[in-house]
Amino acid sequence: MTDFISLPFYDLFHESGHVPGIREKLPSLLAGAQRSILEIGAGTGLITTSIADWTPAEIFALEPSAGMRGMLLSRLSARPELLKRVTVLPYDALSVDLDEPVEAMVMINVIYALDPHYRKRLWPVLATQLEPGGLLVFTWHDGGPPAPGPLKELDTRQVGRHTYTILSEITESDGERCKARYLYRITENDKVISEEEIVGNAYRPEWDVIEGELVSAGFVQTDAPEGLLAWRLGLQQF
Q1: By the 8 A CB rule, do 132 and 233 touch?
Q2: Could you read off the pLDDT of 148-181 as tens digits, one per residue?
Q3: How many angstroms from the chain centroid is the CA of residue 42?
Q4: What processes in GO biological process is this protein linked to (predicted)?
């Protein structure tokens, strides 16, 4: 799995990027979860702490990246009332093994990082950790991977005298996979202070592929706001 975000850029761009939309759409889906929620790919905790504000449920925040976990724990330390309610899990999603099934699972901006083989193995694992009728929610963009294209600026932020800029290009595109190159650049005036390059594969499966995988794992689709997919485990039995 590839994480395309440079740690110093993560909160700076996500807080005013996709996060506000998720904070608007997700609460209604999680309204029924009062006991326990698993967040897969919790990152730095931008959504984790919001979930804690929306629901009294115990939260399991799974994040395999040590750097991301460090930022997540720093965020939790600033909210001492959450330290007994949020458990940070330091391993891969395929290794999750909770004491009891949770009521809901959330994955925000995670699907793109999962290669097809990993993804097919993941759904049955999640099904064992979710209670019957439990909810699985994740972000979704249909239409397959983007076509190859030149390096272009995606976004920029000003912090003091420095400008933080993200650039990207798609170098390959085949099936549901694309190979992307990201540059994370910090400049002062026209001088480059630092630049980090991240290259890796991202995945954008078509709808029928995702539907087939989830149905095979025992999930049934339910209503969700645009940009999200929601599924219930074994809903046909209830």
Answers
A1: yes
A2: 999 999 999 999 999 999 999 999 999 999 999 9
A3: 7
A4: methylation
What are the helix (H) ranges across the chain? 10-14, 19-29, 48-54, 66-77, 116-129, 207-216
Please say whether the beta carbons of 203 and 138 come within 8 A: no
Local structure of residue 234 (DSSP, 8 states): T
Distance, in Å, from the CA atom of 10 to the CA atom of 184, rounded to the nearest integer, reads 11
The structure tokens listed for 99 are: 């004491």
Phi (first) and psi of residue 137, to 5 degrees: -125, 135
Q: Which of 199, 173, 170 is nearest to 184 (CA)?
A: 199
Q: Mind listing the domains of the chain with CATH numbers?
A: 7-142+205-237 (3.40.50.150), 149-203 (2.20.130.10)
